[in-house]
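Q: My collaborator sent me two sequences in one message, no labels, and asked for predicted structures for both. Can we handle them in order? The first one she listed is below.
A: Yes, handling them in the order given. First sequence, followed by its structure tokens:
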Amino acid sequence: MSSKKSKDPCKVSACRIQTCLKEHKFDETRCYDVLEAMRQCCLKWHQVSLCCSGIKLDRDYLADKEAADREREQQQKKQQQQE
């Protein structure tokens, strides 16, 4: 009697998020790519994936990444000007 558990289709993406966050000292801005991949998975599978409970389906992580990158560049330019 072996019962097959259905695999959560977004579990791999969820694990990638945890790995990325640990590698970047829990700085979410460094993990927008993997967060967006998770969001895309959840857009497709949110009705069956337990991993999707904390993902905001309407948030555009790529736009957030671009904004964070621009802010980082501005800070770097500002530091260079002060030197």
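Q: And the one she listed second?
A: Here it is, processed independently of the first:
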Amino acid sequence: MALFEGSTSDPPPFTIDGAHTTSGIPGILHTGHDRPYRFSFYSNAFPATVHARSLSELPAEGQSFSDLFTGIPPPKRGGDQPTRPSPVPLAGERPSNYKPISEQPRHSTSDTGAWWLDIQNPTDEEMKMLSKVFSIHPLTTEDIQMEETREKIELFRNYYLVCFRSFDQDPYSPTHLEPLNMYIIVFREGTLSFHFRPTPHPQNVRRRIKQLKDYISVTSDWISYALIDDITDAFGPLIQGIEYEVDSIDELVLILKEAETSDMLRRIGTCRKKVMGLLRLMGNKADVVKGLAKRCNEHWRVAPTSDIGLYLSDIQDHLITMTQNLNHYEKILSRSHSNYLAQISIEMTDANNQINDVLSKLTALGTVLIPMNLVTGLWGMNVHVPGQNIESYAWFLSIIAVLAAFAIIGGYSTYRFMVHRR
């Protein structure tokens, strides 16, 4: 912890361990009230979560980083009030059973309970400092800095790393449903979690700890389990909404009228896009949780205990069920899409049949009228016409009668032919 505490002539807003100051670490520990809170520190020994803009703001006045992480409360100010409220008795001296983090046993949580430091959008300097302080392997640091997208579980000498993907849950955000990587480093004494965009998961887990603190033992393994469980539960409402939409599409795709199916293709496409996005996010989660649950035994030194393995097996069942449901919804949407296209094809076929029927009637009418037009056209030429010099309408009426008889015979023959063909 001494790496956290440099010494310069300009003290920061909070004094850390007397003469030790933290503003000497450039890019990490300088303060600024215009920046958002990026660090959240929780410990079973403290009554509330500490939120800070930089690492230097985490310890209270008169409290060192070692005291903070080992659960030593800050000393009283002037003998009257503590710098931060706490339900446990405050003392300026360390207890007799106190041991630094590096000297505490790896297989048991310290007497003050587990700590949890959540970091949003860590810088390269902060990652280097945290890697030195907590002895984080360079490969783990590289995965976090490069925002590794593959979900996995890796065991190291003094910790294990869980890469688990969540998503942007703000429905009004332009990045809604985009992947959000969570990196969880679990020690025996505490947990480090990293993410590069705001997410409600840490707050949800802290709220859950507050509700269940009297009934459970909050350990670093339990905190990692709670984070994984909260990420898994975040998919539940989305999958339920997709289920309602899929059922609606499946029922309406074949019964809607032609005027009401204009937006059906858009609904199918939007729903399939959500399903495929969730399937991509759910891809390797069940395998990661299964791999972590398998290591919950005495053969793995840093793996979670067996009771956490039961919780992880329950999460695995939920993940498998949700993945199967999404695959089922994708099949239903694929079938609905095919049914929609088939319905459109049937409607287009009906329209073509109607057009062909009208065209066949027009063709029959033209067949009857063309010979009549030929006769009248011949009589309209500048030639001698039979009966031209006769003062009588006998020729004219005879020609009209012949044309009418031809029209009747042709129309009747065409009607009989079309009826016989049908």
